[in-house]
Amino acid sequence: MPIDLASVNWIYVAVLAVFVFIASLLGNFLSFYHRGLAAFMTAILFAVAFVFWSYYPHNLPLPTRLAPEQVAAPAAPAATAPAPVKPLNPVRTIAPPQ
Fold first, then answer.
1. How far is residue 7's CA from residue 70's CA, in Å, rounded to a whole number?
2. Is the separation of the CB atoms in 63 and 12 below 8 Å?
3. What is the mean pLDDT of residues 59-83?
4. DSSP letters of 7-18?
5. Are 41 and 30 in contact (CB under 8 A)?
6. Would you list the domain boundaries of the chain?
């Protein structure tokens, strides 16, 4: 499987799923069950909730990022550049034809 499920922040996924559920309920109630308007209002309500959750400094101990901070790995030692390859033809100048 290309996704490493062990590295998924499941609390963050659950919080966003709750936001989508609540936004969907509110969008349906506010649009009087019209599907197109409900979808539009759900998207707007979710965007508002997501921006509030991710960027407002509410000082809650819950996750606010998709991935944890990555610690930089130590740099590998620099490899020396290989010696330049000499051309097979020893002529290094181009002379105009005579």
1. 12
2. yes
3. 63
4. GS-HHHHHHHHH
5. yes
6. 17-55
The pLDDT of 50-60, averaged and rounded, is 75
Does the global pTM surpass 0.85? Answer: no
Residues 23-41 as b or e (16 or more Cβ within 10 Å = b)? bbebbbeebeeeeeebeeb
Q: What is the number of alpha carbons within 13 Å of residue 23 lying toward its C-beta?
A: 19
Residue 39 CA to residue 11 CA, distance in Å, equals 25
Cα R_g (the chain), whole angstroms: 29
Output the six-digit token pair for 2. 């290309």
- By residue count, the chain amounts to 98
